[in-house]
Amino acid sequence: MASEGGSEDVRIKQIASTIRVIPDFPKPGIMFQDITTLLLDPKAFRDTIDIFVERYKDKDISVVAGIEARGFIFGPPIALAIGAKFVPMRKPKKLPGEVISEEYSLEYGTDIMEMHVGAVQEGDRTIIIDDLIATGGTLCAAIRLMERVGAEVVECACVIELPELEGWKKLGDRPLFVLVKTT
């Protein structure tokens, strides 16, 4: 769980309690971490955003990049609060105009992530946000897109981590900030 200076933020326990776990969804053996119940709790949702804002408000972040689709829920309010632009990172053929693409591996196959050409500039300081890190493939693709345009990835941020899948290892030396770790 998120902590600063060795003391756990008291809001984290409430946030964690609002996340519903749905067994065997979307397929047998998966314990789906459902954040829609967190969104139904205005205090927990606000606390989630506030914790991220408190962390990034003084770090000179110019871009908050949100990964489709749940990164679109958390990213825009964080970007607005810290005075950064929000850049959506989407699946193929979802963005109009010219895009750059990055292919990445999934458990069974591959996928592609895209962002608009020109949305991020060389030297931009970015955070990449998503609801969850599992194997780390999606975050790594987002990092590669940012680095290809010369942006600095300051940190990756997720509401939930599935630590047993060790996705953080794929991030290399890029910092990862997580609010809730599953057990």
Task: Walk me through the topology.
Elements: E1 3-4, E2 7-8, H1 11-17, E3 20-23, E4 31-34, H2 36-39, H3 42-56, E5 63-67, H4 71-82, E6 85-89, E7 99-106, E8 109-116, E9 125-133, H5 137-148, E10 152-161, E11 176-181
Parallel strand pairs: 5-6, 5-9, 9-10, 10-11
Antiparallel strand pairs: 1-2, 3-4, 7-8
Question: Can you tell me about this structure?
Answer:
The chain has 183 residues and is an alpha/beta fold. The protein has helices at 11-17, 36-39, 42-56, 71-82, 137-148; strands at 3-4, 7-8, 20-23, 31-34, 63-67, 85-89, 99-106, 109-116, 125-133, 152-161, 176-181.
Distinctive features:
about 180 residues, five-stranded parallel β-sheet, two-stranded antiparallel ribbon, 5 helices, disordered N terminus, glycosyltransferase, Ade_phspho_trans, Adenine_PRTase
SSE-based structural type: alpha/beta
- Count of individual helical segments: 5
Please give the radius of gyration in angstroms: 16 Å
Measure the end-to-end span: 11 Å
* Share in β-strands: 25-35%
Order of helices and strands: EEHEEHHEHEEEEHEE
Outline the biggest β-sheet. 5 strands, parallel
The rough form would be described as globular
GO biological process, one term: purine ribonucleoside salvage
EC number: 2.4.2.7
Subunit structure: Homodimer.
Organism: Acorus calamus (Sweet flag)
Explain briefly what this protein structure is:
It holds the Pfam family Pribosyltran. By secondary structure, the chain is α/β, with parallel strands linked by helices.
